[in-house]
Design a protein that fits this description.
By secondary structure, the protein is of the alpha/beta class. It has 11 helices and 11 strands. The strands form 2 sheets. Strands 3-2-1-4-5-6-11 form a 7-stranded parallel beta sheet, with helices on both faces. Strands 8-7-9-10 form a 4-stranded mixed beta sheet. Strand 4, helix 4 and strand 5 form a beta-alpha-beta unit. Helix 3 crosses helix 4, helix 6 packs parallel to helix 8 and helix 10 crosses helix 11. It is globular.
Length: 367
């Protein structure tokens, strides 16, 4: 089959895990493909994905071959696939905008983030790069809070004629105005804000649904997360967290029997712990009432490698997006968005979303 050609904005830990995964599963068979939700999607295997364009703004990555850039600081995710051939894809300079939080400059002395001194590319040049690469799908891996930058690259995708997978909590796919623009150009979109395979949000949703199904009233809950990658460093700027908190909170609220009052639910990133690197710790507490109004509570500690966890969902979103392109379907892809994203255009229970995706794959469902 032909390759699924993708372009990536932001060559951080998530991009590294995705590219490692493409090669990790290259020579495997279905029975050996541990860690995938779907081995085959419409005939496409993980190794059928090809990255043909990459854009970043970090001085240490711009100009490097992508195979080298994904292992360059400040990336700190686990390396599970060391052998990646030279790809012939050079990381191009992007446009900074609000893609870097002001406080990140304080960490330059620690070699954590260095903006390239190369001239920024404007929209015309970015569109030229995307078109020239032959990419058909654009992945957004910008830092949380990159509102202006995400809209800039969404405009580039529209002008270049690319589908969009928006992995961060800036509301593009779930925004009716943006969705209509992509549908008008017959370009499929998936988003917003990628879930993990087994992460804080999906675990919280599953337990919340369990409370509902077993007749337990959930009265209070929190989800606190810590990590040591640049995403958690970026989120020390609390002004960038509004959409992230909304996305994560709504993902849980949407499965409850009745919505909780804001003062009784607290979900969001909590702190940056450098030595954790790409390991994410989630501390979850849920308090409720059972039979006879008798109180109970659950406390849970979850430890995951953050970026491989998200790549397990993105690798399905890419292949479903390709099927939509082949089927001439534009606009919001409701099923794969509900299954893989925290803030999709429409929320569905996770088991229902999974069934919807399976129906979409075999063509029984349009979106």
């Amino acid at each position: 089959m032909e390759k699924i050609k993708i372009a990536i904005i932001g060559i951080g830990n998530c991009a590294s895990s995705l590219l490692q995964g493409i090669y990790y599963y290259k020579d495997r068979k279905a029975e050996d493909a541990i860690g995938l939700m779907h081995w085959d999607i419409g005939g496409y295997k993980p190794s059928d994905i090809e990255v043909v364009a990459a854009i970043d703004i970090d001085q240490r990555k711009v100009g490097l071959d992508l195979s080298e850039a994904i292992f360059t600081r400040p990336n700190c995710t686990i390396i599970f696939q060391e052998e990646i051939p030279e790809l012939g894809v050079k990381v191009s300079m992007g446009k900074v905008l609000d893609g870097v939080a002001p406080h990140m400059a304080e960490y330059n002395k620690n070699n954590t983030f260095i903006i390239s001194d190369k001239p920024e590319n404007d929209k015309e040049e970015i569109v030229k790069i995307l078109k020239g690469s032959g990419a058909e799908i654009l992945l957004n891996y910008l830092p949380v809070g990159s509102e202006e930058a995400t809209r800039f690259y969404a405009e580039c995708a529209l002008e270049a004629g690319l589908a969009l997978i928006n992995n961060i909590p800036v509301f593009i796919v779930s925004n009716p105005t943006w969705a209509a623009r992509f549908e008008e150009k017959n370009l499929p979109i998936v988003g917003d804000d990628i879930k993990a395979q087994i992460g804080a949000t999906i675990t919280h949703r599953t337990l919340a649904n369990l409370f509902k199904d077993r007749g337990v009233k959930l009265e209070r809950t929190y989800q606190l997360n810590t990590g040591g990658n640049t995403d958690f460093l970026n989120m020390l700027n609390r002004s960038r967290l509004d959409s992230k908190k909304e996305s994560k909170t709504e993902a849980v609220q949407s499965v409850l029997a009745e919505r909780m009052e804001p003062e009784n639910i607290h979900i969001g990133p909590s702190d940056y712990v450098p030595w954790q690197k790409d390991n994410k710790l989630c501390f979850l507490r849920m308090e409720g009432k059972t039979f006879g109004d008798v109180p109970m509570n659950i406390e849970l500690r979850l430890s995951v490698e953050d970026s491989p966890n998200s790549a397990g969902c993105v690798i399905d979103a890419i292949r479903c997006c390709k099927l939509a392109l082949e089927r001439n379907i534009g606009g919001q892809l409701t099923s794969i968005s509900a299954f893989t994203m925290k803030h999709p255009p429409k929320q569905f229970p996770d088991d229902e979303a999974r069934d919807m995706v399976d129906e979409f794959i075999i063509g029984k469902r349009k979106r």
